[in-house]
Amino acid sequence: MRLSLCLIAALLAAPAFAERLTLDRIQADPALSGPGVRNLRVSPDGEHITFLRGRDDNQFQLDLWEFNTKDKTTRRLVDSKVLVPNESISLEEKARRERARTASLSGILNYSWSPDGKQLLVPIAGDLYLVEAAHPDKARKVASGNVADPKISPKGRYVSFIRNQNIVVIDLTTGKEKQLTHDGKGTVHNGEAEFVAQEEMGQRTGYYWAPDDSAVTYKRFDEAPVPVVRRFEIFADRTDVVEQRYPAAGDANVIAELFIVSPVSGAPRKVDIGANKDIYLVRADWSGDSKTLVYQRQSRDQKTLDLIAVDASSLKQRTLLTETSKTWVSISDDLRFLKNQNAFLWSSERSGRNHLYLYGMDGKLLSTVSSGEWGIDNVQAVDEKTGRVFVSSNRDNVVDKQIYALALDGSLADKPLRITKADGWHEANFARNGEVFVDTFSDPSTPPQVSIRSADGAMVGWVEQNELNDKHPYGKYKADMLPTEFGTIKANDGQTLYYSMIKPANFNPEKRYPVFLYTYGGPHAQQVTRKWDNQFYQYMAQQGYVVFRLDNRGSSRRERQFTDVIYKELGKHEVEDQVTGIDWLAKQSFVDAKRVGVFGWSYGGFMTLRLLSAASDKIAMGVSVAPVTDWSLYDTHYTEQFVGATPKSDPTAYANSGVFAHLDGLKSPLLLVHGMADDNVLFTNTTKLIDSLVNRNIKFELMTYPGAKHGISSRAGQRHVYSTIEAFFRKHIGDKADGS
Questions:
Q1: Closest alpha carbon to 512 in 590, 587, 582
Q2: Which residue of 164, 307, 394, 699 has the lowest C-beta tally within 10 Å?
Q3: Residue 174 in 3-state DSSP?
Q4: Which of 149, 630, 678, 679 is catalytic?
Q5: Residue numbers of the domain that contains 452
Q6: What share of the chain is helix, strand, coil (3-state, %, to 5)?
């Protein structure tokens, strides 16, 4: 009897059994990451932290929230459902969201503070509202009709936006609306970024205000030279024929021009950007005193980038500096003009690492702000009072992101002060003066936590602690959370490759487990990071797989020696590195080398095909989603940057960098997946692959998604595609993957 009572007491005291993750739960509400925040902003007075947050009943419907730093309260400022109960967006807006990777979101996707901190500019569903910060229930519609890229001018006198391919301003002192450009129609666009600029150059706008509100400089482009691609978008109940001007590798790009216009007179003045029209106009900006316009011009082969200053009064020009490379010159957003000095900050990879430099407006180098065997990610803020510039970097650990302080005079160039302390991943949003910042921190076991920090990193307060306790959406699953291990492997030439690994549930070192290898593999990306992750990888580990990722040559946040090796031969070195990782896995006692599967999306889909073609003897199966198969079908800026030529100038490079020259080696089972309305990696990539596989009598399985774009981003689509991927793994290598 005593034993029974003790047993009952023990059972009552024991915690409830944890639940296992399911694919349905990963896609359901509320978000497993907790009440996440997006688009953090610090108000001009530093007293308010604003952000976008998904709703409890729909994590993809975003509302505008505020955290008050004085009374430490959080409230919803603007309810998107109240502002616009039934949202409907234009085809142009849908395309913009696809470029910005926000196609799955609705509600309020962006906003901005007025310079005096009294109002917020809120666009939603093509309309534009001004919201009083003190009385957010007083939202005033100021513009409507497919409004895009809205801004409040730096001094706050104007609201500007793009409508029907023209720039429009509203004078807030009079309420009068004025159209600044008038020829935008058909193939001519004013104040916008063209397709490849949005997709590949991180260019989200095509117009820029002078700091004193005196002028706007804007890009005008004509896309008439760009070939029209007739693309089929196949939906469940119809097929639309879309004529899209798509500049595939080797094709003509848009013809870009640069203008300056006064919001008062409305008279545009053309800036001469050179006789060669076959260039990229990648950035434009203004000096702090509004006297100088500065623009960046990149050559078509992307081996040269000029930073050019234009006197706003006379339009006389001078080249401040020129960056060159034997492969490609990277584009950044690190240009910063100092207000109290006649100088600017500029980042460059000329040393082999991305470092920061201070230049005078005469183009002379004043100081090397950072140096050494590390590199910055980007500039976060400048505090001219203290002579500090804040940057993000992985200086202390390649898989981390930390915030550091450097001195404008270069005295801390190789010994920056680390501001953030916890190992892991920190995303920072600084106040304009650099005196305070919002720190969003996570690691593989900590969902994103948002805190306010002083410039030295000291805690001021929580915006969202997001503690992973029993009340957290992930709380019931945390007991089964599996740790992520990080390590390094040496490539065949001695380069260091970083990997992450999650061992299966109920791991037994005496057992041999199948491998779920996820790869992206392409440039501009890093997969092995010490931050909160996609829970699909946790799910697969809980199904009994060793989940493995490795960053191969070409991956970002490394030295140029590491990235440049892919030039002119995409897929070769990336595949070699991934195979090195597979060989390393095969030597581990707990890995079943005969049951290694690979999955990748986009460039990762391309990598999956190349890996199966090169190493079907080592890879048992693969899933390729939305793959590029023929680089001559992909866009100019990206493709020519890395293949280093056009299809006509170097057909061998294109043949070797694609998949078709290698397909005879593909022997393992393949699942091919693609959205049937993809306007990024065109569906033609997959139809061409299907034809080639059929002609070679190579068997494969196919899953296509009617109406889906590149991300297959609908909730139903995401749930289905990931369950399809999991089922294919289980079918071919997962029969014994029970983790028991």
A1: 590
A2: 699
A3: coil
A4: 678
A5: 339-443+446-473
A6: 20, 35, 45
pLDDT 10s digits, 339-396: 888 999 999 999 999 999 999 999 999 999 999 999 999 999 999 999 999 999 999 9
Q: How confident is the model at residue 679 (pLDDT cuts 50, 70, 90)?
A: confident
On whether the CB atoms of residues 524 and 546 are closer than 8 A, the answer is no
Active site residue 112: no
Number of domains forming the structure of the chain: 4
Amino acid letter, residue 724: T
pLDDT above 90: residue 9: no
Co-location of 200 and 285 in the same domain: yes
**492 and 575 share one domain:** yes
| Residues in Cβ contact with 5 at an 8 Å cutoff, skipping those fewer than 6 apart | none
Q: Could you give the 3-state DSSP secondary structure of residue 508?
A: coil
* Number of CB atoms found within 10 A of residue 416's CB: 24
Written as one string, the DSSP assignment of 631-660 is GGGSBHHHHHHHH-S-TTT-HHHHHHHSSG
Number of Cα atoms under 13 Å in the Cβ half of residue 247: 27
For residue 91, give both structure tokens: 């085809």
Q: Which of 153, 500, 602, 714 is catalytic?
A: 602
Active site residue 414: no
> Rounded to the nearest 10 degrees, what angle do helices 715-733 and 535-542 cross at?
30
CATH number (domain holding residue 408): 2.120.10.30
| In a shared domain, residues 343 and 399 | yes
CA distance 492 to 213: 56
Backbone angles phi, psi at 378, to 5 degrees: -170, 165
The answer on 688 and 570 residing in a single domain is yes
- Which of these, 570, 551, 560, 558, lies nearest to 641 by C-alpha position? 570
Same domain for 617 and 699, yes or no, is yes
Kindly state whether residues 315 and 201 are assigned to the same domain: yes
pLDDT of residue 735 exceeding 70:
no
Q: Is beta strand 670-675 parallel, antiparallel or unpaired with respect to 701-705?
A: parallel
Whether residue 582 is found in the same domain as residue 638: yes
Any idea what the Cα angle at residue 726 is, between residues 720 and 731, rounded to 5°? 120
Measured between alpha carbons, how far apart are the two ends of the chain, in Å? 34
Lookup result for tokens 């300056």: 260
The tokens of 597 are what? 């599967």
Q: Look at residue 210 and tell me whether its pLDDT is greater than 90.
A: yes
Annotation says 720 is catalytic: no
Phi, psi (rounded to 5 degrees) for 491: -70, 170
Residue 591 lies in a domain: yes
Q: Quick one: residue 11, left, alpha or beta (phi over 0 = left, psi -120 to 50 = alpha)? A: alpha
Catalytic residue among 637, 662, 710, 732: 710
User: Are 612 and 706 part of one and the same domain?
Assistant: yes
Any domain includes 548: yes
Distance from C-alpha of 290 to C-alpha of 269, rounded to nearest angstrom: 16
Span 488-498, pLDDT tens digits: 999 988 999 99
Sheet holding 546-551, edge to edge: 484-490, 496-502, 546-551, 513-518, 591-601, 621-625, 670-675, 701-705
Residue 158 belongs to some domain of the structure: no
pTM score > 0.85 for this model? yes
